[in-house]
Amino acid sequence: TSKPMVLFLGPWSVGKSSMINYLLGLDDTPYQLYTGAEPTTSEFTVIMHGPKLKTIEGIVMAADSTRSFSPLEKFGQNFLEKLIGIEVPHKLLERVTFVDTPGIIENRKQQERGYPFNDVCQWFIDRADLIFVVFDPTKLDVGLELEMLFRQLKGRESQIRIILNKADSLATQELMRVYGALFWSLAPLINVTEPPRVYVSSFWPHDYHPETHRDLFLKEEISLLEDLNQVIENRMENKIAFIRQHAIRVRIHALLVDRYLQTYKDKMTFFSDGELVFRDIVEDPDRFYIFKSILAKTNVSKFDLPNREAYKDFFGINPITSFKLLSQQCSYMGGCFLEKIEKAITRELPDLLGSIGLGKKP
Description:
By secondary structure, this protein is of the alpha/beta class. The chain folds into 2 domains: 5-212, Rossmann fold, CATH 3.40.50; 243-358, Topoisomerase, domain 3 (Orthogonal Bundle). Helices cover 43% and strands 12% of the residues. The chain is built from 12 helices and 10 strands. It has helices at residues 16-24, 58-63, 77-80, 117-127, 144-152, 172-186, 214-233, 235-267, 274-283, 290-297, 308-317, 337-357, and strands at residues 5-9, 44-49, 54-57, 83-88, 97-100, 130-135, 160-164, 197-200, 330-331, 335-336. The protein has an 8-stranded mixed sheet, sandwiched between helices. It has a two-stranded antiparallel ribbon with strand order 9-10. It starts with a strand and ends in a 5-residue tail after the last helix.
């Protein structure tokens, strides 16, 4: 029942807060988000619907179980002081929630923020239905913090939209050069066949600068609003598709852990040192065909397989002996876990999607 969430990311002073003010008509009201040429937004600001304008402290938001922000408590009190909620009685917010984030400052270390910035970003990225990554054409520095951010966005490419904001501050020829430079900088970071949609305009209430492409900017603005509306309309479909995608990841993970466990049991003898045997397997899973056997057995794409290194950490926290083989997790009445998840992926979730497509209420 939760509303779709739209996340605004990007370097500092690119116009993220101005864009939200503009979309919601908050300019010149007491609740407009503070904007300026220097880094201004140091908080994660959640803009949601409410009967009247009011501000909510992060500590209150995290404590309120009716909102979906209570898991943010795990990032500590320092972070909750940097979280703020604003309720606005706006029509659009009845259907969507906006999240404004602190700008990325390339020369600042994460420790200086006083909380795990990347982990918090990841929490919001995992829950966002649409991610606007905003750039200013006059400063396109793609540094380490931005690279890290795009690494975190991996797998969410379909939700990313790139915004080239303040486009009327450049002449046409310059704008074309900047557009090309932006793609050149981002190409290594977004490794997909179909690049994300780029919107070129100036998202603020002032009139476009004279002698710029007014018609183009206006059309881009309308396209962006249509895109936003589409995400709101397709909320249910997107949610089911995401659950299915997550189910596929759970299935792959289960199969891999099962394979590690089976290999471990096969290699163990009465005189073996269990720890040494397993360290051998974890250090070089390819020697035991762990990942290849999953590809051979199932219709899993090699691009969906998790990182081998991640399993060193995983088994460091979860000992291999704490798992049971999948074949042992079946019961006469309850069936098998793996069969249930296969059924959900191949039949149940697609049927649910189909029922929405036909206009039935699922």
